[in-house]
Amino acid sequence: MTRSVNLITQVAPGELRPALWLTLKAFLLLFAYYQLKPLREALILSEHDATIRSYATAIQALVLFLLMPLYAYLVRHLGTQRMFSGVLVVAVISLALFWLGHGLQLPVAAPFYIWLGIFNVFIIAQFWAECAAYYQPEAGKRLFPLIAAGATVGGLLGAVSAHWVFIVSGVGGAFAVAISGYVAVWQTPRPISSKVAQASADRSVDAKQHWFRGLNHLLLNPYLMLIALFVLLLNTGNSLGEYILARWVELQYSGADQIGAFYGGFYSWVNFATVLCQLFLVSRMIRWLGIPSALLLVPCLMLGGYLTLFFLPLFWLTCLYKVAENSLDYSLQNTLRHTLFLPLSGVQLYEGKAVIDTIFWRLGDLIQLVIVLLGSHWLLLDLSGYLLINVGLALVWIWICLRLQRHIALLSADLSRRGAADPGA
């Protein structure tokens, strides 16, 4: 087993067993989540429509903003391990209640959609906090890729199985498999921590104060502001693309079981393409093109893709494009997004990144809602109108990337000059 794991990363004596338990946890978490992700789409589109789906996405972002200070408070006072177990217990009980409500034909689609988005943010954050509480930095750098690989495989197999679960047993089967998955996570042995979990929790910073300081850094640093706009456009364009796909799905399928089977298959292809991109494309694109040029790949794909869909509005072509866009977002674009912070100092890095990854990322969901509201109720847009809006967003995104290229070049030249002046720095 050690020889097999060493193909992915280096494992020191005594590290294999706890690393495999954490990898199994990551696998089960993503496996269960990808039972529920097609399920939430199936319920929201069968009970309501794509516009209500956009409302639910925006409400989810607003509720997350309100819950973040409470979340930080609970982590500081309970520690990562107790929080992780508590969130899992709440999840299992909540899923059972949603399943019961659906069986009683209660309107659970919108509350379930909002609940799942919030729950997944917290449970994934808690899982990685538990991993950080267990490992020292040197060991974490070596073993986190193994744990992340378990999550990636869990997401892929979860989506594939969800497709067949909906075909065989429908909504009830998806709820049952997901609940079983989270119970399995709950019962998976937790390695005895080599660090005090509470110490990890104590490193948390008060969310409100953290955000205000981070916003101040953004206003004073043009480079950070460009990164914030980059992230904002990334999520706005992708969310609006999901709305366009949902509108197509409404026209093609009816009933929760059919919609769930479609999204199970769709997410299977997205996760499969993401694995291939992460393994074979990301590092090569960054090495061959460099970070500044690689930034333009997804915005240019977005521009060409939505222009093509405007002239050829076909369902299968929309699905093909969204698989390509989502897989590149989850692999290449996420990697590039994190590398943009490398030239920054410690304070700018931690506080600015915290604001960008929370406020500006979720702000994209709210802007998508505004676009859908204006398009549905005042402008009366059809799908072609939303396609043209995403074309416009892609053009603005390309302009932001070009500005980022200039700043990256200036920062790199400045770092080179300081390195030459002080070789020991």
Automatic annotation (TrEMBL):
Species for this entry: Corallincola spongiicola
Chain ranges passing through the membrane: 20-36, 56-75, 82-100, 112-131, 143-160, 166-185, 218-240, 260-282, 294-316, 385-402
Coiled-coil portions: none
InterPro entries per UniProt: MFS_trans_sf
Sorted UniProt keywords: Membrane, Transmembrane, Transmembrane helix
Gene3D superfamilies in UniProt: MFS general substrate transporter like domains
Protein name listed in UniProt: ADP,ATP carrier protein
